[in-house]
Amino acid sequence: MQHNRIYLLRLCRIKMKRRQTESKMGILNALKKANSALSHDMLETLIDTPIDRATIYRVLNSFCEDGLVHKTLGDDGKQYFALCGHCAENEHGHNHTHFHFRCLNCGKVECLKSDVHIPLPTGYTFENFNGFITGRCSICI
Amino acid sequence: MQHNRIYLLRLCRIKMKRRQTESKMGILNALKKANSALSHDMLETLIDTPIDRATIYRVLNSFCEDGLVHKTLGDDGKQYFALCGHCAENEHGHNHTHFHFRCLNCGKVECLKSDVHIPLPTGYTFENFNGFITGRCSICI
DNA sequence: TGTATTATTGCAACACAATCGCATTTATTT
DNA sequence: AAATAAATGCGATTGTGTTGCAATAATACA
């Protein structure tokens, strides 16, 4: 809680343009508690005080811009957002070249640890990666 | 052309439920000519005789069911469909565990050849794979 | 070849995720 | 306490894909 507050404040200071609001705290909190990637509607149900859909997306996208969160598009057509753990600071920069796994039973979406190397044909340049796998997690087998 | 006709006819026979229509021939033809994955709107512009959006999707999905085509979700939120070359008959069955690459300049979406193996955490089961990369192709550098 | 069957099609309506414009609110600065 | 501008809520909008239904047309069969 307090940890988040400080963290967010730090980020706000750095950017000098973000303000600390309840919405941001709530979303950040929910993401941290969940310890997994969340969609907009998941967040809506997880957060007590109702936040408008547009606001949730705006906050999440601003988090993405600030490198606090990364986004992945699920094969269900939904965007999922997850806190950047080590991934933002590692040698790969801000390229999140890891897969995301969605359990078809419980719906949880988690970052798979193993970083993927993508073999592009010669002369091709890399811009973005989106890796998504569905199945069943160990709990829902 | 004639090749497609025979191929499609064979498939119709096998399934005993599909009929050969102009829409199907047109879509199949476009996919073959393009030699890449196409979205619904790409197909609409590529095919001379106008076909309804719903029909295109229905045809494409029926092709998927029959194993003639596979589908991938792009990070632009669009579904792309590509003819199954060898992938349908190889040892991996109908799991298309290869990446798709979309050029941000020309828009072409192609299947990358290398098959990917993703190590899931223990106890996890696999159901579906979607790997999507964007960048620039060798022509558009 | 003509007729019956039913897959296929086109149209319109719908469902859904996500975004945008704009007036209002509110966190921050001074 | 007042001024500034970021953030919010609301409603409308975009875009992709699906569905229901009546009309059409490909196939099977007499």
The CATH architecture of chain A can be given as: Orthogonal Bundle
Instruction: Characterize the overall form of chain A.
Output: globular
Number of structural units classed as domains of chain A:
1
Strand order of the largest sheet of chain A: 1-3-2
Largest sheet of chain A: 3 strands, antiparallel
Kindly state the number of beta strands of chain A: 6
Number of DSSP helices of chain A?
Answer: 4
CATH topology of chain A: Arc Repressor Mutant, subunit A
Poorly predicted segments of chain A? 88-92
How far is it from the N-terminal to the C-terminal residue of chain A, by CA? 33 Å
Q: Largest interface, per-chain counts? A: A-B, 31 and 31 residues
Overall CATH class of chain A: Mainly Alpha
**SSE order of chain A in H/E notation?**
HHEHHEEEEE
Helix fraction bin of chain A: 25-40%
What's the rounded overall pLDDT mean of chain A? 88
CATH superfamily membership of chain A: Winged helix-like DNA-binding domain superfamily/Winged helix DNA-binding domain
Strand content of chain A: 25-35%
Q: What structural class should be given to the helix and strand makeup of chain A?
A: alpha+beta
Q: Radius of gyration of chain A, Cα only, in angstroms?
A: 16 Å
